Amino acid sequence: MPEARAKKGAAGDGAARKPAAAEGAGVAAGTGDAAGATRPRRRQARGEARIAQLLQAAASVFCTSGYTASSTNAIAREAGVSPGTLYQFFPNKEAIAVELGDHLLHRWRDTYGAAFDQSHIELPLDRMLDAILDPLIAFNCENPAFFVLMHGSEIPGRITEEHDTLHATMLNRVEEILADYLPDVPAAQLHRVAEMAFMVFKAGLDLVMAHEGEERDAYIRELKAAMYRYLDPLIGDDSPRLTPDARRGRTP
Q1: Which of 148, 211, 219, 242 is 20 to 30 A from 85, alpha carbon to alpha carbon?
Q2: What is the pLDDT of residue 153?
Q3: Coil, strand, or helix at residue 122?
Q4: Would you place residue 237 in the very low, low, confident or very high pLDDT band (cuts 50, 70, 90)?
Q5: What value does the mean pLDDT of the chain take?
Q6: Given its phi and psi angles, is residue 154 left (phi above 0), alpha (psi -120 to 50 degrees) or beta?
Q7: Do residues 90 and 16 lie in contact, with contact meaning Cβ atoms separated by under 8 Å?
């Protein structure tokens, strides 16, 4: 649980550790009555709500100031709590970033899994790109702190390692999709095509995230157009390199 992780990180700070244990983990002096039995659960819920409040504040501060320039005082101020309250749950800024990164990476995995659903892979190329790219782009736009934490400098190493692992997983999935379309293409070439497509997406996403409103929508269209023009000669419905089996499930 997030509270347990926060307590572990603050183990060296005895003054901060006890309040965190009492509120975050719901530890209370035992009593025999029914009210006493429910108090730990209420305290635990309050601790979880406080952690969520601090993480939301951290996401806002990281987006506004960048990770490097952010401070625990700024995060506490954004959350409307004292620095002492923050330290009951997190010993430093890095611990907050790691916790926030864990939450966002978990949600990103769910988004990525839904985007690459097999039913999307069986669509024509233009509709497939919509079905795959739209949720990935939307997630980044709705969670700008994810972009900051995954691409910023001086980010905690654990976040970078988990992001690199997820990057490799997504790249492998793109290679698997390409292999279905191009069964006769050598593995090395498939890898190059997959990596190129992946890097085009990442570069385009940088531009998308740098703009807002109608201009952002325009860059999303440009990103999809670039992806389509690169992939269509290889895997589009009219590509001469497709075998009949690779066309299964495509609309004429």
Answers
A1: 148
A2: 65
A3: coil
A4: low
A5: 81
A6: left
A7: no
Give me the percent of the chain exceeding a pLDDT of 70. 76
Burial class (CB in 10 A: 0-12, 13-18, 19+), 165: exposed
DSSP state of 246: G
Question: Which two structure tokens, joined as six digits, stand for 195?
Answer: 């990596």
* Distance (Å, whole) CA 73 – CA 96: 12
Please check whether residue 89 is in contact with residue 75, taking contact to mean a CB–CB distance below 8 angstroms: no
Q: Residue 200: which residues within 8 A CB-CB, separation 6 or more?
A: 223, 226, 227, 230
- For 17-75, give the secondary structure using H, E and C: HHHHHHHHCCCCCCCCCHHHHHHHHHHHHHHHHHHHHHHHHHHHHHHHHCCCCCCHHHH
**Within 13 Å, how many C-alpha atoms sit on residue 31's CB side?**
9
Q: Helix 93-115 vs helix 34-65: angle between axes, to the nearest 10 degrees?
A: 90
**CA atoms of 121 and 103, how far apart (whole Å):** 27
This prediction has a pTM of 0.74
Separation in Å, CA 234 to CA 57, 189, 191: 45, 12, 14
Q: How far is CA 100 from the centre of its chain?
A: 9
Look up residue 177 and give its amino acid: I
Identity at 186, one-letter amino acid code: P
